[in-house]
Amino acid sequence: MAIKRKDGEPQPGLRWGMFTTRIPGIHVNLSLPEIIQGGLLTTATGGVVAALTMNFFNVPFDVAWSIVLIQLFWLWFVPVVLLGEPYAPGWITAALPLVIVFLSGFEPGVPAIHAMIALTMCLSAIFLFFAVTGLGSAFFKWIPVELRAAIIFAGAIAAFTSEFDRLETMPITLPVVWGVVIFLMFSIWFGYAKQKNKAFSFMASMALLVGFLVAAVVGPLTGELSFAIRWGLHIPQLGEYVTSVSPFFVGWPSWDLYVQAFPLAVMIYIFVFGDLVLATTLLDDANSARPDEKIEMDNTRSHIILALRNIGQLLSAGPFIAMHGPVWTGVQVFMVERYKAGRKNLDSIFTATVNWYWPAFLLIFLVPVVTFMQPLLPVALSITLILTGFACAYISISMVKTPASQGYAFFVGMLIAKFGPAWGLGLGVLLYFMLLIRYVPGIMENPDAPPKKAESGVE
Predict the structure, then answer these.
(1) What's residue 275's pLDDT?
(2) Long-range pairs for 243-247 at CB < 8 Å and ≥24 separation?
(3) Average pLDDT over residues 157-175
C-alpha cells in the first residue's frame, strides 16, 4: 500500500529541486487496468520504431528490437519515475512523417544515422535554450488561446487524415476498432450504464485492450490480419545495436548536416509546443475535476526533461527516429477520462503513468508476445492517433467561445494541417492581428481599460 496523499496536495514522493522521484509500491499504488493494457500497447507501439530502425538504420530485426528496451528507459523511467513528470510521455508522433521524409533523402545505414544524430542534437539544443532562458513558460503564456485552439485542432485534422488514408489497408478492422474504443470511452448512455453495471465498468476501464482484442478477432476473419505465433525467449542484442548506431562508433555528422537539420528541428519544436499545449489543457481539466490532488505542471521542467531524454538516448545508445515528446496523447486522454471518474477509479494521475509502461520491460523478452504483437502494430498506432484526433477536436472546440474565435481557430488549424507548421503559424499570427486583436494603440482604445476620470479645475 502506497503512502496516502492528503486531499489537495501533490502525490507524495522524494522531492529534489523541481523534480520528484516516485517509487512504485511506495509512493504509487499498482493498477491492474493500466498494467495489462499499458504493457501490451507499449510493447506493440515500440515495435513500430523497431521497424523504422530496420528500414533506415539498416540493422536486422534481432538487433533493431533492442530499441524497444532502450526507449523504455528514457520514455518511462527517467521522466515519470525519476523526475516526476505528470504527463504520459510518448513520441513526437505528429512530426514522424516529416522525419521519415527527411531520412528518405539519405542512404540507409550510416548516412541516415548521421542525419538523425544531427536532427536530435538540433532539437535538444532548442529544448535547452527555452529551458535555460526560461522563455518556454513565457512563450506558452504569450500564445493567445485562439491560436492554441488552432494548433490543437490542426492535430485533430492531421490525426484523422493519416488514419483515414490507412483505411485502404484495413477497411473493416480499423473502423470496427475505432467504433468500439470511442463507444466505450465517450458514449453518454454507456457512461451512465457503467455506473450501475460492474461488467460495463470493467469494459470501460479496459477500453484500449478491448479494441486490441477486437482487432485480433476481426482482422483474421476479414483476411486483413494473420498471425504466426512462435515460442521461446528473445534476448535483445544491446551491444550490437549500440555499436551499429551510436555516434561513438559510427562517428559524428559533418557541420553541413546540422545546418540542413536545423529548420526541421524548429518545425518539430512547433509540434512539441502543440503537444505541451494539449497535455497541459488535459491536466488542467483533470485538476478541475479532481480537487483531491494537485497536479503540478512546469513548462521549464518539461523542456529540461525533453532535452535530457533525447540527448540521453543519443549518447547512451544512438539516435531515436520517433524522437521523445512530452505526451502520448491517446493514452493521456484515456488516463484523464479514468482519473476524472474519481479517486476509487485512479487514486492519482501517477497511478496511471507509473503503471502503464513497466510491464513492457518483461513482455519484450517473450517471443509469443512479440510474434502476436507484430501484425497488430498498425492497429496500436491507429488507436493512439484516432484517440488523439478525438481529444484534439473536443478540446479545441471547448477553448473558444465567440463565433469569430471559433472560425479563426478552425481555419488556422486547417492552414497548419495543410501547409505545415511554419506557414500555418505565420498566417495564424497575421490573421490574429487582423481579426481578433482587441485594440490598437492610437487607433482604438482598450475596451477593458477603466474609464478616464474627467479633469476638474478652473481654466
Answers:
(1) 84
(2) 244/57, 244/59, 244/63, 244/318, 245/53, 245/57, 245/59, 245/113, 245/317, 245/318, 245/319, 246/317, 246/318, 247/117, 247/314, 247/315, 247/318, 247/319
(3) 85
Query: Each residue of 156-185: b (16+ CB within 10 Å) or e?
Result: bbbbbebbeebeeebeebbebbbebbbbbb
Nearest to 336 by CA among 375, 382, 290, 294: 290
pTM of the model: 0.75
pLDDT of residue 251: 94
Asked whether the CA dihedral 37, 40, 46, 47 is positive or negative, the reply is negative
pLDDT in tens, 92-110: 877 776 787 788 889 999 9
CA 137 to chain centre: 19
User: How many of the other CB atoms lie within 10 Å of CB of 277?
Assistant: 23
Question: How far is residue 247's CA from residue 312's CA, in Å, rounded to a whole number?
Answer: 12
Q: What is the pLDDT of residues 366-392, one digit of tens each?
A: 888 878 877 877 787 788 778 778 877
**Residue in 189, 219, 216 with CA at minimum distance from that of residue 204:** 189
C-beta atoms surrounding 28 within 10 Å:
26
Contacts of 448 (CB under 8 A, 6+ apart): 438
Backbone angles phi, psi at 434, to 5 degrees: -75, -35
Mean of pLDDT over the chain: 84
Summarize pLDDT for 410-454 with one digit per residue, the tens. 998 888 878 876 678 788 889 888 888 765 555 555 555 555 555
Amino acid at 457: G
How deeply is 298 buried, as exposed, middle or buried, from its count of CB atoms within 10 A (0-12, 13-18, 19+)? middle
Parallel, antiparallel or unpaired: strands 19-21 and 90-91: unpaired
| Cell reading at 425 | 503559424
